[in-house]
Amino acid sequence: MKRRSTGSGRLSSRTSGNPCSSDGLHAATHRLDLSLTLDGITEHCGNFGEPQLVAATETGLNELGLHELAACFSEARALMVPLLAKRTAADGDTHQILRKAGLEMPAAELDRKAWALDNLVPEKSLIYEARIRYSRQYPERVFDR
Length: 145
Fold this sequence. Notes:
- The chain has helices at residues 25-38, 41-47, 51-63, 67-85, 94-101, 104-118, 126-137, 139-142, and strands at 16-17, 143-144.
- The chain is mainly α and 145 residues long.
- The protein has one domain (24-135).
């Protein structure tokens, strides 16, 4: 991303950065933000259950100061990872797997909890608002020099 500014609180030179970079923090939380909008936190863990991505997402949420959402994510991970370990193509999608395991209700409760947290910032994304705050507080971690 390139920006130009004229000073006094506004950017005065060109800066580069990638808010959707593959640095783990932003890439992983970006995917979760989309999942919260389109599906749910358990669906996200079903679709993106790779151990490295899961670890990066949880670390990213905590780094952004979203500790309650990170705890919710951790619960969803704990629910889904054992199911994913034995998943086969015949098991179907995440919803079918949860239904067969009798875990639809706990999954739905985790989804509601995550949606409630995401809706703490009306008409905006909790994760993106946290990323904006983080970028302002730690520009050296986000923007290239």
